[in-house]
Structures are given as C-alpha cells and as structure tokens.
Amino acid sequence: MTARRAQQVEWTVQVSFSRWPSPPVPGAFGLPFGCTAGAFVVLLAVAGGATHHPSWSLLALMATVATAAVTTTVAATLGTAAVCWACHAGFVLGRRGELVFTTNSFLAAVALVSTAVVISAVAGEWRALHRRTVQRRLALALIPSQSRSEAAVGSAPTPRPRADHRVRARTGRS
C-alpha cells in the first residue's frame, strides 16, 4: 500500500463517525418547530371544518411529521408526532383540548408514529448514501494518480511519470 493510499484510508476512518450523518436541523430547534407547525396545522384544519372530517386533519399532520422527519432528529420527530397526536385528539376528535381516547385516536397515534419512524429511516439512509457519495468523490480527488475506473474497481494505482524531470529539462539544471 502506498503512502498516499494509507493517508486516504486513515482520512476515511476519521470522517466516519456514525451510520447516519446528522440532520440539517438540530433536535433542539426541530422539536419546537415541529410542535408549532403541528399546532398551526390543527388550527387551520379546525377552521376549515376538519372536525366533521378528521382524516383531513390527520393527513395534514402526517405531512407535518414527515417534514420534521426529513429535517430534524428522530427524537424531535417522535416528539412532534406526540404533540400532533395530542392536538388532533384534543381539538379535532375532542373539543376544548380534552384528550379523547377512542379507536380513531389510537389509529391516529399509530399513523403519526409510523410516519415518523419510516420517514426518519428513509431520510437517514438517504443522508448516509449522500455522505458516502461525497466521501467517494473526495477520495478520488485526493488520489490524483488513479483514474475514476481504477478507483471504482479498487485496483492498484498506476505509476505516474514524475513531473520534476520536465522542470529540470526546461531549466537546464541536472
């Protein structure tokens, strides 16, 4: 293994900390954002008549949870799902903020938590795939002696002609 290749392997180990890279919005900001968005969605849904059609509110809240799952941490997404369920059960299924524990309330909780878990997993895998692609491109940029096809296959690097013999030939130094 050449010294340059050893440097590249060492660099890759230093960068790889976890399977899923961190999301763009930290959980400390994602949870309040998700809770505020969920409350606003329920407010609009109740104003739009979702008390007669609770599935409208649930679909809008599932979209809110999915947005939180794509942009923030799993814990913040699950917290957002819990607050969205509480708003749905308290203001759409129930009245005046009193939580209602019925079959529809249970199904709404399952739907919101399922949305949070599935979309968080998909978003995490997409971020991990994107990170691996960026790392691969950086590794190719750091190893100039290999062509793209050789780096992709993993074969040994081909020797490059030394650039210093051309400089000596032009300057006349030996």
Overview of this protein structure:
By secondary structure, the chain is mainly alpha-helical. Helix 2 runs antiparallel to helix 3, helix 3 runs parallel beside helix 5 and helix 4 runs antiparallel to helix 5. The protein is elongated, with a radius of gyration of 27 Å.
Question: How are the secondary structure elements laid out?
Answer:
Elements: H1 3-15, H2 27-47, H3 54-71, H4 74-93, H5 103-142, H6 148-153, H7 164-171
Helix pairs in contact: 2-3, 2-4, 3-4, 3-5, 4-5
E-strand count: 0
Radius of gyration: 27 Å
- SS-derived structural category: mainly alpha
Kindly report the average pLDDT value: 78
Proportion of strand residues: under 5%
How far apart are the first and last residues' alpha carbons, in Å? Answer: 31 Å
Low-confidence stretches: 9-17, 164-169
Write a compact overview of the structure shown.
This protein is mainly α. Helices cover 72% and strands 0% of the residues. α3 runs antiparallel to α4 and α3 runs parallel beside α5.
Keywords:
mainly alpha, 174 residues
